[in-house]
From TrEMBL:
PANTHER family in alphabetical order: HOMOGENTISATE 1,2-DIOXYGENASE
Species: Mucilaginibacter rigui
Homogentisate 1,2-dioxygenase N-terminal domain boundaries: 97-250
InterPro entries: HgmA_N, Homogentis_dOase, RmlC-like_jellyroll, RmlC_Cupin_sf
Gene3D superfamilies on file: Jelly Rolls
Entry's family note: Belongs to the homogentisate dioxygenase family.
The protein, known as: Homogentisate 1,2-dioxygenase
Cofactor field: Fe cation
C-alpha cells in the first residue's frame, strides 16, 4: 500500500524557493485527496500545471444500462469483448453501481497521442493478458500478466503495451482503494498476518522529466463525461515529488493464500477494498486438510451483497467448463453453490491451481448493453441435475 516515496529532486523544505539552473522557480503543486484530510503528494513541475490552451466539447462515456433490476445468476463471456485499437474506446463497462464500475477491455494500441485522467475514480487495472509500461509524471511501472495496477484518481497516465494482444479487467472505484483495515497496524503498516506486505508493492521508478511546451491533449473523465483539454506543457514535467499519493502495482502471484483444515471463507482472499465493496484474489493453494474436509465451497446465500467472479486461469474445482475471462454474477437474494457433481469430485484433492479475481459489492449491480451482448443466457439453469 502507499508508503512514503520520493523520486527526482525536491527542495530541503516544503513550500520554499526551489529554482531551476536558470534561476527561475519550479512550480510546486499539492496533490491532495479527501480535501486535505487523506493521502497527498507534493509535486515539483518544470512549469505550472495550469496552462490550458483549449477546452473541447465533452462527450459521454456513461454506461448504457440494459438491465437495471434483476434477480438472475448471470454469466458473461469476457473474451467475447472485441479488441479495439484505442485504449479508452476499448473500455466496455459491464457491471456498474454507484460505488464502482467494472469494465472489460482489449486494447490493441499504446496511448501515444493523448493522456488520460480519471478525476473521480481510483482505477484498478488487472492485467489478464499483455505487458507493458504505465507511464505517469510520478515515474513508470512495468506491468505484466497478473498485476493489479492501482492508479489513484487525478493521476494523468498513458499505457504503453508491448504488443497488440491485451486483456484488461478494470474497476473504477468512486472511493479510495485501500488494503483492508484489519491487515494494517495503527501506523498503517501491513501486519504479519496480512497475505502481502510492503515488499510486494511495486512503486514508480525511472522518473524522467519531460520539459516540453506545445499542445498536449489530456482526456479528463468526470461524472460520465470525457473533457478534451489541451495543455501547453507536457504533463510529465515532474522534476521530483514526495508523499503517499502515487500509482502502484501488486501482482496476484505475490498474494500468499491462507489455508486451513476446513474450507476457509472468502474474506481470507481479500486483497483490497473500497467503500461498499471488496476485491479478493483466489490463487493456487493447498486444499483443506481435515481428514473429512470438503474442498469445494458450500452453498451460499449472500443475503445482501452481489458476488462477481472473474476467471483468470487454472481449473475451477467448483465449476467445470468455465473459460478464461468468464464472469459470473451471483446476485444477493438467492443462493448459489458448486456445480452438480463438483462437491464429491473435490474430496481427496490436495491442491488447486485456480486463479480468479472476486468482487463483492454491497449494492446491486446493473448490467450494461455491452454485458448483455456477451451473456451466456442459460447459466442460471446450470445447477439442474
Ligand atoms: Fe459465494
Amino acid at each position: 500500500m502507499p508508503v512514503y516515496h520520493t523520486l527526482g529532486t525536491i527542495p530541503h523544505k516544503r513550500h520554499t524557493q526551489f529554482r531551476k539552473p536558470d534561476g527561475t522557480l519550479y512550480a510546486e503543486e499539492l496533490v491532495s485527496t479527501e480535501g486535505f484530510s487523506s493521502l497527498y503528494s507534493l509535486v515539483y513541475h518544470a512549469y505550472p500545471p495550469t496552462i490550458v490552451k483549449e477546452l473541447g466539447e465533452p462527450y459521454s462515456v456513461e454506461p448504457k444500462i440494459a438491465r437495471e433490476k434483476h434477480l438472475k445468476h448471470t454469466s458473461l463471456i469476457g473474451f467475447n469483448i472485441k479488441p479495439e485499437d484505442d485504449y479508452l474506446k476499448s473500455r466496455k463497462p459491464v457491471l456498474v453501481n454507484s460505488d464502482l464500475h467494472i469494465s472489460l477491455a482489449a486494447p490493441r494500441k499504446s496511448m501515444t497521442d493523448y493522456f488520460y485522467k480519471n478525476s473521480q475514480a481510483d482505477e484498478v487495472i488487472f492485467i489478464h493478458v499483455g505487458s507493458g509500461t504505465l507511464k505517469t509524471g510520478f515515474g513508470k511501472i512495468k506491468f505484466e500478466y497478473g498485476d493489479y495496477l492501482v492508479i489513484p484518481r487525478g493521476t494523468i497516465y498513458q499505457l504503453e503495451f508491448d504488443n497488440e494482444d491485451n486483456r484488461l479487467f478494470i474497476v473504477e472505484s468512486f472511493s479510495p482503494i485501500r488494503a483492508p483495515k484489519r491487515y494494517r497496524n495503527e501506523y498503517g503498516q501491513l501486519m504479519e498476518h496480512s497475505p502481502y506486505c510492503e515488499r510486494d508493492i511495486k512503486r514508480p521508478t525511472d522518473l524522467e522529466t519531460i520539459d516540453q511546451k506545445g499542445d498536449f491533449k489530456i482526456l479528463i473523465k468526470k461524472q460520465g463525461l470525457i473533457y478534451p483539454y489541451t495543455y501547453g506543457t507536457h504533463p510529465f514535467d515532474f522534476v521530483g515529488w514526495d508523499g503517499f499519493h502515487y500509482p502502484w502495482a501488486f501482482s496476484i502471484h505475490d498474494f500468499e493464500p491462507i489455508t486451513g483444515r476446513v474450507h476457509q471463507p472468502p474474506p481470507v482472499h481479500q486483497t483490497f477494498e473500497g467503500h461498499n465493496f471488496v476485491i479478493c484474489s483466489f490463487v493456487p493453494r493447498k486444499f483443506d486438510y481435515h481428514p473429512l474436509s470438503i474442498p469445494a465451497p458450500y452453498n451460499h446465500s449472500n443475503v445482501d451483497s452481489d458476488e462477481v467472479l472473474y476467471y483468470v486461469d487454472g481449473d475451477f474445482m467448483s465449476r467445470k467448463s468455465v473459460v478464461k475471462g468468464q464472469i459470473t454474477l451471483h446476485p444477493g437474494g438467492i443462493p448459489h453453490g458448486p456445480a452438480p457433481g463438483s462437491v464429491e469430485k473435490s474430496i481427496g484433492k490436495e491442491f488447486t491451481d485456480e486463479l480468479a479475481v472476486m468482487i463483492d459489492p454491497f449494492r446491486p449491480l446493473m448490467l450494461t448493453e455491452d454485458a448483455v451482448n456477451i451473456e451466456d443466457g442459460n447459466y442460471y439453469k446450470s445447477w439442474v441435475i
